[in-house]
Amino acid sequence: MSLLVVGSLALDTIETPFGKANEALGGSAVYISVAASYFTAPIRLVGIVGGDFPQSAIDFLNDRSIDLEGLERIPEGKTFRWSGKYHYDLNVRDTLFTQLNVFEKFDPKIPDSYRRSKYVVLGNIDPVLQRRVLEQIEKPRLVIGDTMNFWIEGKRNELMETLKFLNVLIINDSEARLLAHEPNLIRAAKKIIGFGPKILIIKKGEHGALLVTDNIIFSAPAYPMENIYDPTGAGDTFAGGFIGWLAKSDDVSDENLKKAVIYGSAMASFCVEKFSIEGLKDLTYLKIQDRFRAFKDLSDF
Amino acid sequence: MSLLVVGSLALDTIETPFGKANEALGGSAVYISVAASYFTAPIRLVGIVGGDFPQSAIDFLNDRSIDLEGLERIPEGKTFRWSGKYHYDLNVRDTLFTQLNVFEKFDPKIPDSYRRSKYVVLGNIDPVLQRRVLEQIEKPRLVIGDTMNFWIEGKRNELMETLKFLNVLIINDSEARLLAHEPNLIRAAKKIIGFGPKILIIKKGEHGALLVTDNIIFSAPAYPMENIYDPTGAGDTFAGGFIGWLAKSDDVSDENLKKAVIYGSAMASFCVEKFSIEGLKDLTYLKIQDRFRAFKDLSDF
User: Fold this and answer.
1) B208 phi and psi angles, rounded to 5 deg
2) How close is the nearest chain A Cα to the Cα of B18, in Å?
3) Between chains, do A221 and B299 touch, taking CB under 8 Å as contact?
4) How far is B12 from chain A (nearest CA, A)?
5) Residues of A in contact with B89 (CB under 8 A)
6) How close are the terminal C-alpha atoms of chain A, in Å?
C-alpha cells in the first residue's frame, strides 16, 4: 500500500564512545522511508534539502525505490545539519549544534501524485506543518505522528489540535509523561488517547515499547544489544518498520498492531548496530524475519 | 519442597502521595516468606526481632503456615525500624530514618530442623552473614541471594566471595551496572554470571525484569499499574513468588525459570496495590493464576 513520509533530511555529525561519523545521511524522513522500504511500496518522500545534499544520498534513496518527487531542492541553500555526542552511557547525549538551514523555511507541498496515499507518517516537525500536510491529503487510512519535548513545551496548543487528526502517536516515555502531566506511564497513556490518537506507542529505549489502544496494552521487549554503536535514528527507524508492516499487511487490527510494534523494534535494533543508516543498508527480508522470531523467543513463556 | 528464608523483620513507617502507614509489618524475610507461602510449604524463617514485635504479626505469619522456630526474640531489644517517603514519581524515595536495633547484631543461627532445606533465599543482608548461613546448610538444591548498593560499594570483596556460592542473584538494574562496572545491561549481566551465579535476574521496576542464564535471555513485562500505592517490599515479594514457584514445581529448567519470573512479577504487582503487606494478605491461588494469564496477554504476539 502507498505510504507518504514527511520529515527532515539531514547531514549528521555524530560522536559515540565507539567512533565518529562526519556529515552522514540522516533525518527523520530518511530513517522512516528506508526502514519502511523493506516492507512496502510505493514510498513517497516529502522533505527539503540544499544544493550541497550529496548525489550519493539521492542515489541510495532511489536504490531503495523511494519516490523523491516530493523532495524540494534549494540549490542556493544548505541542508539541515545536526551534530551530537553520546556518552559512555548511550542514553545520554549532548547536541553539539543544530543548523536548520533550508529546513527552517520548510513548508511541505504534497505533489498531486501523493495526495491519495493510504498510509501517512508525519515525522517530528512543527505541529502546524503536520496539520498543513494533512489538509493536502485525501482520506488516508492511517495517520501516524511523532513529536518531541520541544513542541510539547513550546507549541502545546498547536500540538493538541494536531493530535485530534492522528490515528497513531509515537513518542518516548519522558515525552508521554510531559504531554500528559502524569508520572505514571499507564495513566499518561490513557490520558493521551483521550487527546485524539486512538493508538499510542511509547518507546522506552533499552526497555522496549508499549502499545496502548482502547482495548489492549501490549508490552514489547527490547532486543538485548551488547553493542550499540549509534542510537541516532532508532526512534524513526522504529516508526518506519511499524508503518511499513502495517502498509504491507493493510491490517490495523490490535493483533496486527502488536506485530507491527515488533517489526518496528526489530528494524530499530538493526539501526543501532552501526553508524548512521549503515545498519539499514544491506538487510534482507529473511534477516528481518529472523530478528522477529528472536523477539518471540525473548518474550515467550 | 522445603524453603529457608533468611532476612530482616521490620516495622516500617511509610509515606507515599496516597497515604501513610505507621510501624507496619515489613522486612525482606517477611515479604519473601509471605509471597512464597502461596506456593509451597514448609517455609522456614530465620530472623531477629525485639520484645516490641507485635503478637498480631506473629499470628499473621503463623496463619500463613510460616515456621518461626528460627525467629530469634530479644525481649529487652527493639525491632529494626525503617521509614521512607516516596515522591509523586514513585521511583524516587527518601529514607527518613533507619534504626537497626536488634538487627545490628543479627548472627543467623540455623535450627537443626532447617539444615536440610532444599531451597534457600538469602535476603539482602551483609554478604558475610549470607555465607555464614550457607555454612550451616546441607546441600541445598538452589540458593538465591539478594544484595544492594550498600554492600556492592562497601563490602565488594566479601560480596564477590559470596557470589561464588549463589545459584541465583536477584538485583535491580542500577545495582547490576554498579556490580559489573558496565552501563550496558546485557554486558553487565554476562559479566555478573562470570562472577558465580549462573542465573541472574535483573529487576527493572516499571519496565519489568530480565532473566539471564548461560543459555537464554528472557524479558518479562511489567504489569501495567495505574495505581501504585506503596512500592515497599516489591523486590522481596518478587523473590518470594519466584522461589515459591520453583520450590513448588521443583524444576529449575530454563523454561520453568521463565514462569517463576512471571509468578514473581505477579506477586509484586499485588504487593504494590496496597500499603505494607496488605496486598499479600487475602490472595488466592486462582487470583494469582488470573494475574499470570494477564502477563501472557500482555506480552503475547
Assistant:
1) 90, -150
2) 13
3) yes
4) 24
5) 183
6) 34
Asked if B224 and A219 come within 8 Å (Cβ–Cβ), the reply is yes
Angstroms from B120 CA to nearest CA on chain A: 25
Please indicate whether, in this complex, the C-beta atoms of A218 and B299 are within 8 angstroms of each other. Answer: yes
Residue of A165, A166, A161, A177 lying closest to A210 (CA atoms): A177
Query: DSSP state, B273?
Result: T
Residue numbers in A near B263 (CB within 8 A) = none
Selecting from B190, B219, B224 the residue whose C-beta is nearest the C-beta of A299 gives: B219
Q: Are strands A209-213 and A199-203 parallel, antiparallel or unpaired?
A: antiparallel
User: Can you say whether the dihedral through the CA atoms of B56, B58, B63, B64 is positive or negative?
Assistant: positive
In angstroms, the CA A77 to CA B136 distance is 77
Q: For residue B86, what are the contacts with CB-CB under 8 A and spacing of at least 6?
A: B14, B15, B16, B17, B92, B93, B230, B231
- Is residue B198 within 8 angstroms of chain A, CB to CB? no
Binary contact (B184, A221; C-beta < 8 A): no
A56 backbone dihedrals φ, ψ, rounded to 5°: -60, -35
Question: With bands split at pLDDT 50, 70 and 90, how would you rate the model's confidence at A92?
Answer: confident
The answer, for B89 touching chain A at a CB cutoff of 8 Å, is yes
pTM for the model: 0.94
Residue A151 and residue A163 in contact, taking contact as beta carbons nearer than 8 Å:
no
| Integer Cα distance of A247 and A110 in angstroms | 19
Q: How far is B141 from chain A (nearest CA, A)?
A: 23
Query: 10 Å Cβ neighbour count for B25?
Result: 23
Lookup: cell for A207 = 526497555
> pLDDT tens, B4-29?
999 999 999 999 988 899 999 999 99
Q: Residue A91: is its pLDDT beyond 80?
A: no
Interface contact flag, B186 A226, Cβ < 8 Å: yes
Residues of A in contact with B256 (CB under 8 A): none
Contacts 24+ apart (CB under 8 A), B96-103: B96/B13, B96/B15, B101/B50, B101/B77, B102/B48, B102/B49, B102/B50, B102/B74, B102/B77, B102/B78, B103/B8, B103/B10, B103/B48, B103/B79
The set of cell numbers assigned to B189 is 549481566
Position B253 pLDDT exceeds 80: yes
Chain A residues with CB-CB distance to B230 below 8 A:
none
Interchain pair A299, B296: CB under 8 A: no
Nearest to A35 by CA among A59, A6, A64: A64
Q: Is the CB of B225 less than 8 angstroms away from the CB of A184? A: yes
pLDDT tens for each residue of B212-234: 999 999 999 999 999 889 999 99
Q: What is the mean pLDDT of residues B31-45?
A: 98
Residue type, B61: L
Q: How many CB atoms lie within 10 A of CB B2?
A: 19
Output the CA–CA distances (angstroms, integers) from residue B190 to A231, B91, B176, B243, B257, in the order listed: 22, 26, 10, 22, 17
ipTM value, please give it: 0.90
